[in-house]
Design a protein that fits this description.
The protein contains seven helices and four strands; from the N terminus they run H-E-E-H-H-E-H-E-H-H-H. By secondary structure, it is of the alpha+beta class.
């Protein structure tokens, strides 16, 4: 029953995104111990920010509210299957449960390009100046007050 309540809140956020022209039909809610920690919608168009997906916005709000990047014990409800960027952020935030409505194929069917991120190699990854960059890693390695995340 609670799943339905949380998904309805995500749907309401997505509706807000559509009604205000902030972005696509994407909303997300983060829950911990049965309580809503944050809710957000897609603001890609509003902010001209390709990373302003609903899940990313919800993670940012939850992290700010809880005062930590570690959202262990939280769940996320989202109106669409998270894209690879959002999945990465969800994993970095230590969220273990993702409940989603529409699929990436559904998003592709209405003109979003989610499918390409799962099917094609679209980046040229080129390793350059590794030795210089590894000096930063060495500095981190010996740093005594580092915080691993």
């Amino acid at each position: 029953m609670k799943h339905s309540i949380f998904m309805k809140k995500a749907i309401k956020e997505a509706t807000c995104s559509l009604d205000k022209g902030h972005g696509g039909p994407f909303g997300a809610v983060i829950v911990k111990s049965g309580k809503i920690i944050s809710k957000a919608h897609n603001t890609v168009l509003k902010l001209n920010d390709a990373t302003a997906h609903a899940e990313m916005n919800a993670i940012r709000k939850a992290s700010k509210k809880l005062g930590t990047y570690d959202l262990s014990g939280c769940e996320i409800y989202t109106t669409c299957m998270p894209c690879p960027m959002c999945i990465g952020a969800i994993r970095w935030a230590n969220i273990k449960s993702v409940y989603f409505g529409a699929t990436s194929q559904d998003a592709d069917d209405i003109g979003f390009r989610d499918k390409v991120f799962y099917e094609e190699d679209f980046l040229e990854l080129k390793n350059i100046q590794r030795a210089e960059c590894l000096k930063l890693f060495e500095k981190w390695k010996i740093k005594e007050d580092k915080v691993l995340y």
